[in-house]
C-alpha cells in the first residue's frame, strides 16, 4: 500500500514511517522540514518527502496514495498560547485543505491524529467517545475543530478515521523534551531532579510512542468498515495516572529528587479516558508497554542521547525550535518559509 505520512520528520512520524516501511508499505513523507535536523539518534526517513507547508497542499501532492496518515500540526499547548491565529491556520484550515486534497486525489482512507486533550479537564471522571468534548486550550480546540471540519467535508468515497491518542511518551530519533513523561525522565537523567510545576493532581492517560505507531499501522491495515467515519481514543484504560504519581514512578526507577516549583499555574487539561472502543474494533493491536515498565527503557535511550540533548536542548522543544527558525530568518511572522538554508 502507498501511504503518505504528513509530519513524517516529527517526533511520532520518525518512528511511524520506519514501522510502515518494515511492514512492506511504500511510504512517502509530507513535511515542512522544521524539525528535520532535530535529531538525537540515527533516523530512517522514507526515500521521498514532499517538502511543503501543510497550508499549501494540493491534490497532486497526494496522487497515487491509498492512505494518508495526518500527523503534521503545531503540536502542543505552548504553540496555542504563543500564537492562536497560526495554530488555527495550520491545525484547522490546513487539515481541512489536506482532507479536500485527499478526496480530490482519490485517497481511500484518511487517518487524522487528534488528541484526548479535546476532553478538557474532567477530574476523575472516566470519559469515552460518547462524552461531549470540552476543549480548554487553543491547541485542543484546534484539534476538535479540525475533527469536525473534515468529518463534515469528507465524501462517502473516502474513509475517515479520527484517532485521539493519550499523551505520548517514549524515545524517538527526533525526541521531544516538551512532553510530560519525557521531560521528567530527561531532567532526571541529566540533572538528577524531577521538577513539578503544578500540584500534580490532574489525571492524564499515557501511551508509549511505539504502541501508538502500532495502533496507527493496525488502523491503516484494517479492512474497510461499514461505518466509514469513526472516532477512537487510543491507549490503555489502565494507563491513566495523576501527574504526581508519574513523578514518583520516575523517582522509584532513577532514584532522583522530586522538586515542586512554586507556581500559580494549574493543569488546564487532565482526564481519565476509556479506550475500550479501540481495543474492540482493532483486536490486531497488541500494545507492548505500560508506563511503569517503560521508564527504564526510556531513561536508557535518553542516556545514550545525552550529548545532543545537553548540547542544545532547545532542539528538542518544539516552540523553541520554531522561534530559532524565525530568529535565523528562515520563517516569517506567519511561519512561512523565507528561504531554505544550505545543508
Automatic annotation (TrEMBL):
Give the top-rank taxon of the lineage listed in the UniProt record for this protein.
Bacteria
One Pfam annotation, family name?
Epimerase
Transmembrane portions of the chain: none
The residue ranges of the NAD-dependent epimerase/dehydratase domain are 3-235
Q: Which SUPFAM superfamilies match?
A: NAD(P)-binding Rossmann-fold domains (SSF51735)
Could you tell me which CDD domains the record lists for this protein?
A: SDR_e
Query: Which protein are we looking at?
Result: NAD(P)-dependent oxidoreductase
Amino acid at each position: 500500500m502507498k501511504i503518505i505520512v504528513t509530519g513524517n520528520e516529527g517526533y511520532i512520524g520518525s518512528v511511524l514511517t520506519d514501522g510502515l516501511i518494515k511492514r512492506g508499505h511504500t511510504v512517502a513523507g509530507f513535511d515542512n522540514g522544521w524539525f528535520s535536523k532535530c535529531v538525537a539518534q540515527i533516523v530512517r526517513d522514507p526515500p521521498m518527502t514532499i517538502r511543503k507547508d501543510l497550508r499549501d497542499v494540493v491534490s497532486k501532492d497526494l496522487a497515487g496514495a491509498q492512505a494518508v496518515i495526518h500527523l503534521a500540526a503545531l503540536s502542543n499547548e505552548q504553540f496555542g498560547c504563543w500564537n492562536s491565529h497560526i495554530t488555527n491556520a495550520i491545525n484547522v484550515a490546513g487539515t481541512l485543505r489536506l482532507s479536500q486534497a485527499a478526496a480530490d486525489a482519490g485517497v481511500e482512507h484518511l487517518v487524522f491524529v487528534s488528541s484526548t486533550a479535546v476532553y478538557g479537564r474532567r477530574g476523575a471522571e472516566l470519559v469515552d467517545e460518547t462524552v461531549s468534548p470540552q476543549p480548554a486550550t487553543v491547541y485542543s480546540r484546534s484539534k476538535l475543530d479540525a475533527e469536525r471540519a473534515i468529518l463534515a467535508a469528507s465524501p462517502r468515497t473516502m474513509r475517515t478515521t479520527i484517532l485521539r491518542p493519550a499523551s505520548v511518551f517514549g524515545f524517538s530519533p527526533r525526541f521531544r523534551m516538551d512532553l510530560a513523561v519525557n521531560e521528567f525522565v530527561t531532567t532526571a537523567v541529566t540533572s538528577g531532579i524531577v521538577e513539578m510545576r503544578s500540584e500534580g493532581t490532574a489525571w492524564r492517560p499515557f501511551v508509549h510512542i511505539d504502541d501508538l505507531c502500532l495502533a496507527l499501522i493496525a488502523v491503516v491495515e484494517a479492512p474497510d468498515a461499514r461505518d466509514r467515519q469513526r472516532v477512537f481514543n487510543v491507549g490503555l484504560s489502565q494507563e491513566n495516572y495523576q501527574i504526581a504519581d508519574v513523578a514518583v514512578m520516575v523517582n522509584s526507577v532513577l532514584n532522583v529528587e522530586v522538586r515542586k516549583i512554586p507556581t500559580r499555574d494549574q493543569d488546564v487539561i487532565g482526564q481519565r479516558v476509556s479506550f475500550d472502543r479501540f481495543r474492540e474494533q482493532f483486536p490486531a493491536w497488541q500494545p507492548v508497554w505500560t508506563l511503569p515498565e517503560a521508564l527504564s527503557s526510556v531513561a536508557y535511550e535518553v542516556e545514550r542521547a545525552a550529548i545532543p540533548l545537553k548540547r542544545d536542548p532547545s532542539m528538542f522543544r518544539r516552540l523553541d525550535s520554531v522561534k530559532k527558525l524565525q530568529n535565523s530568518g528562515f520563517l516569517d511572522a506567519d511561519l512561512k518559509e523565507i528561504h531554505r538554508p544550505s545543508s
